[in-house]
Amino acid sequence: MFKNHQEANALMTLAVRLYDFQVPYGVVTCEGLNVRGLLEKPKYNFLINAGIYIIDPSVYNYITRGKAFNMTDLIQWLIDANEKVVSFPIVEYWLDIGKHSDYGASTDRLPGRNFRPWVGITKML
User: Fold this and answer.
1) d(CA 79, CA 111)
2) Angle at Cα 12 formed by Cα 11 and Cα 14, nearest 5°?
3) Are 56 and 71 in contact (CB under 8 A)?
4) What digits encode the pLDDT tens for the residues 59-116?
C-alpha cells in the first residue's frame, strides 16, 4: 500500500474493500403509480472505506488544531481542494471494528484468547 502511495504521488491513500449488498426483497421501479419494472433480490457491489489510510505530512495543513473532525471530512476537503487522493484495494481478510461490540467480537477470532486489546490501546491514548 505504501509503495503504491509513493508511486501515485498522492497526499492520501485510502484502503478500500469490495462490499456486496443483497436487497432481501424484490425492488420495484415505478413512474407515479405505474410499475415499470421488478428486480428480484438485486445484489449491488460497492467499494467501501476500510478505515486504513496513508497520509502525507502536508495534509496536516488541512486540519485545524484543537477542533474535532471526522476522517471522512478530511478526505472530502482534500478532494474538494483537487488534491490527489487514491484508493488501494485490499483483498486480505478484513473485519470492521468501528463499534465496541464489533471490536469485542473480533478478539474472539484471535489466537490465544487471553489477548487483552484494550490494555494496549488505553496506553496509546
Assistant:
1) 40
2) 165
3) no
4) 988 888 888 888 999 999 999 999 999 999 998 877 777 777 767 776 666 665 555 5
DSSP state of 61: G
Exposed/middle/buried for residue 97 (C-beta within 10 Å: 0-12, 13-18, 19+): middle
C-alpha cell at 95: 473485519
Alpha helices in 32-80 (DSSP H): 71-80
How is residue 14 written as a grid cell? 485510502
What is the C-alpha to C-alpha distance for residues 65 and 18, in angstroms, rounded to an integer? Answer: 34
First to last CA, the chain: 26
Q: Contact, 8 vs 86, CB < 8 A?
A: yes
CA angle 7, 45, 17 (to 5 degrees): 40
Beta-bridged to residue 40, according to DSSP, are 26
